[in-house]
């Protein structure tokens, strides 16, 4: 990278021109050949995966096709009121016209609607089940958005209507405000630090350019790699942070060189030879850390690692090529439009306040080091109570269509109806149906279980040959509740083995809630290996850079402390619910396991 960076300093117009051509090619390619994001993933050697495999093999479309649930409830009375029925009938007619919709089951037209869970026990909440012709990741986004639009149009002051399901989760999601807040905070800090609007804007501008190029490349990479729908969001979060950081390294070193009398071009060369080198090694370390996700052996995580890694590389390139070219071209104008507090020359390049701060730390390193260590340990304490899992619609803002559906499901059918377990039972023959029903009855008696569906031959939940059945088990608690995870463990290790012993039955507990629990467990089990690989490889990179053992060891320890403190703060805000208003958090719950 050194020769390229130095060329950018000496020939800034050529470097900027090359970047313009590269950006046009990348953005044009992403616009024309954008890949499709894929949220499907599998967990090798887990019970939920085995359940999914049996469902797909024995039940076909019943198991694999996307579905959505439209929940509705009048403000007063039951759903049998003529005005309510008229509104829902109109909505049903609109939904049936959506191209990828296969069937719509309405509580007004489906035989045995109450038994099929389409009408709540008190008659105040109704559920309309929409089944698509294709799996979740193949449903056209235009169709999903049309479904959401139709449902929102049916929502009135007298009738509350919402739609939920995995297929609508992303279509109804709202862009987070935290990234925008982060950029604003960065601008304020940079203004205080540099005292110049131009100098403060350069790190932001180059980071955004690198981020845009990176996200576009991620879009292209989606053609050949499975990248989740939220992959670009994760890549943007990481890329924006390190991009501003890397650009700040370079411009701060340039500023220091200029303040001690270097000519702008010489200062830019010094910046790329010192800070630029550090940026390349820092970016390499981050990419190695992301590469550590491959040890998990999950294609889902591999796509996230590739997407974030591409973005880190692009923002790193902008920091050591585009930024030095711009600095060389602007010269001393890089510090134009000075703020009032920065118009007087400083006694030290880093500023009087930072110089005094650094000198104070150097006078008592053990004292301040111990205080810092204690502070980081305190921040990390909440990490030990972290619960991992995926957020559900219960954490969405009030008024969001999926939140409405979630709340109405809880109100009418119980919290567990938002994420029931699917117990897939394989039987030696149709003669084993009584044994399967005995299992269902035992499941229904288990503490923490609200209901367990019976095994009835001839229904969609039993194969025609009578050898495979689905028992839907509804917990009394919601998908994110720790009690639901405890119940899953109890069913798998105690209840089902005892109930199936000597019967010839084989049962697997699956369903979305079980998948999330298994996913969290897989990642938790792999965490020690992941940390060992990441810290170990990072240590080797730093040994090559510094030709020392003390500095890499110190970096490894501080990295682990930072990791613990970051998770601790995350638990403090997103799981415990403190400071949620400041960060724009609308709900609390378990922490995403891949964080």
How would you explain this protein's 3D organization?
The chain is an alpha+beta fold and 595 residues long. The chain has three domains: 225 residues, Multidrug efflux transporter AcrB transmembrane domain (Multidrug efflux transporter AcrB transmembrane fold), CATH 1.20.1640; 123 residues, Multidrug efflux transporter AcrB pore domain (Alpha-Beta Plaits, 2-Layer Sandwich); 91 residues, Multidrug efflux transporter AcrB pore domain like (Alpha-Beta Plaits), CATH 3.30.70.1320. 59% of the residues lie in helices and 8% in strands. The chain is elongated, with a radius of gyration of 29 Å.
Distance between the termini: 31 Å
Question: How many structural domains can be distinguished in the coordinates?
Answer: 3
- CATH topology name of the largest domain, in short, is Multidrug efflux transporter AcrB transmembrane fold
Helix content: 55-70%
User: How many H/I helices?
Assistant: 20
CATH superfamily of the largest domain: Multidrug efflux transporter AcrB transmembrane domain
Relevant terms:
single chain; 595 residues; alpha+beta; Multidrug efflux transporter AcrB transmembrane fold; Alpha-Beta Plaits; 3 domains; 4-stranded antiparallel β-sheet; 20 helices; 8 strands; 59% helix; elongated
């Amino acid at each position: 990278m050194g020769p390229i960076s130095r060329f950018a300093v000496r020939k800034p117009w050529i470097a900027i021109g090359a970047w313009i051509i590269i950006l046009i090619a990348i953005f044009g390619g992403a616009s024309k050949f954008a890949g499709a994001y894929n949220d499907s993933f599998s967990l090798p050697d887990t019970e939920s995966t085995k359940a999914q495999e049996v469902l797909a093999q024995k039940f076909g479309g019943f198991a694999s096709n996307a579905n959505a649930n439209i929940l509705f409830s009048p403000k007063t009375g039951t759903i049998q009121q003529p005005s309510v029925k008229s509104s829902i009938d109109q909505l049903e007619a609109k939904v049936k016209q959506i191209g990828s919709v296969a069937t719509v089951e309405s509580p007004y037209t489906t035989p045995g609607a109450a038994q099929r869970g389409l009408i709540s026990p008190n008659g105040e909440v109704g559920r309309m089940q929409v089944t698509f012709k294709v799996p979740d990741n193949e449903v056209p986004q235009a169709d999903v958005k049309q479904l959401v639009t139709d449902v929102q149009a049916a929502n009135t002051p007298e009738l509350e209507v919402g739609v939920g399901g995995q297929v609508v989760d992303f279509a109804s999601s709202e862009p987070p405000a935290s990234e925008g807040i982060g950029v604003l905070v960065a601008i304020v800090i940079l203004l205080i630090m540099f005292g110049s609007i131009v100098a403060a804007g350069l790190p932001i501008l180059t980071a955004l350019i690198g981020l845009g190029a990176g996200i576009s490349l991620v879009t292209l990479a989606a053609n050949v790699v499975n990248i989740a729908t939220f992959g670009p969001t994760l890549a943007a979060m990481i890329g924006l942070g390190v991009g501003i950081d890397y650009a700040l390294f370079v411009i701060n070193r340039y500023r220091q060189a200029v303040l001690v009398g270097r000519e702008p071009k010489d200062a830019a060369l010094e910046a790329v030879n010192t800070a630029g080198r550090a940026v390349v090694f820092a970016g390499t370390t981050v990419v190695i850390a992301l590469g550590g996700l491959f040890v998990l052996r999950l294609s889902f995580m591999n796509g996230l690692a590739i997407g974030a890694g591409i973005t880190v590389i692009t923002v790193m390139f902008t920091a050591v090529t585009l930024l030095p070219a711009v600095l060389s071209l602007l010269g001393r104008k890089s510090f134009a439009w000075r703020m009032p507090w920065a118009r007087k020359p400083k006694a030290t390049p880093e500023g009087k306040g930072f110089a005094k701060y650094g000198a104070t730390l150097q006078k008592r390193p053990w004292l301040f080091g111990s205080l810092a260590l204690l502070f980081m340990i305190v921040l990390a304490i909440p990490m030990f109570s972290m619960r991992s899992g995926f957020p559900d619609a219960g954490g969405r803002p009030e008024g969001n269509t999926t939140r409405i559906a979630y709340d109405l499901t809880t109100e009418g059918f119980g919290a567990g109806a938002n994420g029931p377990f699917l117990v897939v039972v394989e039987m030696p023959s149709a003669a084993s149906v009584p044994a399967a029903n005995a299992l269902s009855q035992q499941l229904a008696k288990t503490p923490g279980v609200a209901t367990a569906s019976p095994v009835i031959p001839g229904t969609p939940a039993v194969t025609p040959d009578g050898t495979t059945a689905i028992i839907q088990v509804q917990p009394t608690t919601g998908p994110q509740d720790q009690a639901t995870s405890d119940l899953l463990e109890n069913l798998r290790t105690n209840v089902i083995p005892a109930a199936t012993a000597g019967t010839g039955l084989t049962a697997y507990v699956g369903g979305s809630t079980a998948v999330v629990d298994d996913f969290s467990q897989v990642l938790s089990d792999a965490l020690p290996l992941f940390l060992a690989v990441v810290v170990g490889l990072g240590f080797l990179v730093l040994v090559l850079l510094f030709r020392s053992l003390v500095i890499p060891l110190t970096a490894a320890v501080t990295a682990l402390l930072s990791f613990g403190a970051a998770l601790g703060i995350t638990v403090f805000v997103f799981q415990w619910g403190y400071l949620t208003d400041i960060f724009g958090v609308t709900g609390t719950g378990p922490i995403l396991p891949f964080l």
